[in-house]
Amino acid sequence: MNQNITPYQIDDATKKEQVATMFNNISGTYDFLNHFLSLGIDVLWRKKAIKELVSIHPRTLLDVATGTGDFAFEAIKKLHPEKVIGVDISEGMLEVAKKKINERSLNEVFTVQVGDSEGLHFDDSTFDAITCAYGVRNFENLEKGLTDMYRVLKPGGKMVVLEFSKPRVFPVKQLYSFYFKQVTPFFGKLFSKDARAYTYLPESVAAFPDGEDFTKLMEKVGFKSTKQRILTFGISSIYIGTK
Fold this sequence. Notes:
Blueprint: H1 15-26, H2 30-37, H3 41-51, E1 60-64, H4 70-79, E2 83-88, H5 91-103, E3 110-114, E4 127-133, H6 142-152, E5 153-164, H7 172-191, H8 197-207, H9 212-220, E6 224-231, E7 236-242
Parallel strand pairs: 1-2, 1-4, 2-3, 4-5
Antiparallel strand pairs: 5-7, 6-7
Helix pairs in contact: 3-4, 7-8
């Protein structure tokens, strides 16, 4: 599976350690490059993903690989939950998230902490909903991460994952490949401190088991009623599953 794709290919550092280092390096420019490189479409994708949770009215929500918090902020705006906890392995990204939480005066609702998807420090059946945007492909052990997310979800709760996928239709497939392999690394190197981070991005997407492969893995760890919702010609996908 995709755990063999690492940002720096350093033999004595785990994928988890390398991913944390990478996001620490790019945390200062991450939001800008996200919106710039996606031409702003990432905002629309997040809105569509969060709408998948409207029907269950979650009161408690866990945002895994929360990064700078954008997915959680969208959830707060749309769902009005009582409590949102964001976890991420990158302290640099969480520092940016904390600043944004303070600016929005959301300290009572949204808190963040260093955390790992494969060892979440929460009791079984804690959350009404779990979200994860553009994080699952970075898990060192994808199945283990999904298993622990399933564990902390309440029975009847819903998980929503937003992740890049691989377009399969001409000419989107070819244009996407060119943009991801040539344009993205160029601007990533230009604006961020870490040129390698934006060559790792297309590699990690290529290695990620998207589509039916991912929904089958969700089902393997226990999720029911799984489905994939394809966005923008297959560039991204929303994955939904219930416990």
